[in-house]
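[stage:ingest] chain + small molecule (adenosine monophosphate)
[stage:ingest] validated
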Amino acid sequence: MKVLSSSEETYRLVDQMRMQGKRIGIVPTMGALHEGHLSLVHKAKQQCDVAIATIFVNPTQFGPNEDLQKYPRTLQNDLELLSANGCDVVFTPTDAQMYPQDHSTFVEPPRVSQAWEGQIRPGHFRGVATIVLKLFQILPAHVGYFGRKDYQQVAVIRAMCRDLNLPIAIEACQTVRESDGLAMSSRNRYLSPSERQRALGLSRALKGAEMLIHQGCTDGRQIEKLMRKELESSPVDSIDYAAIVHPDTLEPIETITSEVVGIIAARVGTTRLIDNATFALH
Ligand code: AMP
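[stage:predict] done
[stage:export] tokens:
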């Protein structure tokens, strides 16, 4: 496995691979890797000739009161995991490389970024869109692999690629969960054992929503109420949102007539967790 931190060297390598006719898959991450990240690498390996991961804790997607400083950084372990899972190339730039002193160009994120995470974390998707576009430029891959765990992020990246005519396909991969249902996340390691138990409220609320829809309920508001009740009984410490939304526009759905997505963001202790699930109508 090649580990590179220079943008120029990385571009040259990927460009060369493209010239050789290789199909390239890229998996952008912020490190502190777990099975969720590795599932994206596996998907890239299955579908492409070369799987490239990037590890960069992107400062521009964190708000001033967020966890940038304490975000887990486990580079050595990450590299071992990537190597053991068949990753071919890892790009690990420094902050100064990605954002030199005079860096002042940012991507204005698409409309789908405005609600939910975009409202609660102002500037977050501007940072995400900017770093993802920069990574796509440095690593001109054929396919970008992202997790559905960050459902709105995938929608934002898809819209950016469409609007800016980026020649890359976006693959959204299933959320990997712990055996008890908790969606894997680098931030789970902040949770104490009792918070870890209470964090199960998110996946439980989504399961409850799924059951209600399968029983024939089509009232979005009623399902939201049920999700909130489940979260409050866990209990989580605060709920940012618990909503039933359209899978593409992420607009709230009053009456369910086709596939919808349940999205949740809640705080357990000081840790902010998000989760979602797609519900087909039977
Ligand atoms: P992050 O390091 O948190 O920025 O995540 C990097 C990529 O891994 C993103 O595309 C995430 O959506 C994806 N990811 C994070 N957690 C999971 C999970 N539990 N299952 C699948 N993909 C995930």
